[in-house]
Specification:
Number of strands: 15
Order of helices and strands: HEEEHHHEHEHEEHEHEEHHHEEHEEEH
Largest sheet: 7 strands, mixed
GO cellular component, one term: cytoplasm
Keywords: Antibiotic biosynthesis, Hydrolase, Pyridine nucleotide biosynthesis, Pyridoxal phosphate
Structural class: alpha/beta
Subunit structure: Homodimer.
Enzyme class: hydrolase
Pathway: Cofactor biosynthesis; NAD(+) biosynthesis; quinolinate from L-kynurenine: step 2/3; Amino-acid degradation; L-kynurenine degradation; L-alanine and anthranilate from L-kynurenine: step 1/1
CATH topology of the largest domain: Aspartate Aminotransferase, domain 2
Strand order of the largest sheet: 4-10-9-8-7-5-6
Strand content: 5-15%
Bound molecules: pyridoxal-5'-phosphate
Length: 415
Amino acid sequence: MGRMTLGPEDRTAAEALDARDPLAFARGRFSVPEGVVYLDGNSLGALPSGVRAAVLDAVDRQWGQDLIGSWNGNGWWTLPERVGDRIGALVGAAPGQTICGDSTSVQLFQALTAAARLRPDRRVLLTDAANFPTDQYLADAVARLLGLEARRVDPAALEVGPDVAVVALSAVDYRTGELWDVEEITRKAHAAGAVVVWDLCHAAGALPVDLDGLGADAAVGCTYKYLNGGPGAPAWLYLPRRHQQAADLPLTGWTGRADPFGLAGAYEPAEGVARARIGTPPVLSMVAVEAALDVWDGVDLAAVRAKSLALGDLLITMADGLREYGLTVVTPRAGARRGSQVSLRHEKAYELGQALITRGVVGDFRAPDLLRLGLAPLYLRYVDVWDAMHALAGILAANEHEAPRYRRDQTAVVT
Ligand SMILES: *Cc1c(COP(=O)(O)O)cnc(C)c1O
């Protein structure tokens, strides 16, 4: 791709990229509102077209008509394993190692505790000082519970001492979009005898991940970002086969028990990854996730990655053209160090985000000064990126974002 300036004639270059995009067909699998450039799929993925019918069927027919018979008759009971395996296929996990359910926060608690218990003679848990808050809080909570020390580190300068039990990091920095060297970090941690827990919230569905090949000891992720499972969709936990027998999971709910319907008084783990089940699965949400995963049929994750990087290249090139307005690119330029978002720094990032929304461009803001633009290659076109950056250029050139109505409201909720 050539360098793109901001002249209006360059939109045709973006159109040409769309015309030969091997993933162009995938946009038709989503309901993307007309006139909106959606750059927030890294926070809440767009709606896959098949979800509505699946949820309506689960409500009207399965629940409304079949009632309790649906636990078996409509496969409700096996949703966590079934959906888990389909998510696993997108993150390099062979079947029988991934379970869907609960929130990422809950799964982090499960994974971190079980991981630490695999190294009972060690007392340090390493996490990223810039990790998503819930990851840091849960690391602290697990450390407190098990009498460990949760230490913050910079993943770029990771050192793993002999006292480290667990290295728990996110593959992608949620603020800057930086992708860490997952292979090298895993190798380093293993060389020091530690176990590794990866948080793949910003990686699953955004780039190829090979959990089995990596030898990750556990992983977690949500399904509402690049997996498009919907608001509050249940998360997932990867527990590789080699650890399943020894894994001492803290949340021993009844559905993870061997013979759960025996209703025995004492817990005994089920065989395999089923032991990571906790309570009754959130059926309606999980039905939505299952239908949402259909958008991946026949999609090559290498093509997703290639398009994600090309969209990012276009965005970065156009952002560079706006340096004179105090806009800088925070995300690393090297493709190998980028997740699937580009973060831009500007002292009025919040106001810029609001002005962009007025122009139909939805990104998000991360305090204090980041404008985060997510690139979901299944439904995003090159012209969308071009239009978004062209809109940003127009806003900056006309100082639109300085209008009083865009001033930051103290009560604004930023999730
Ligand atoms: C999105 C995200 C979460 C979300 O956790 P929830 O329990 O679903 O609210 C956690 N960690 C990371 C790194 C995330 O990006």
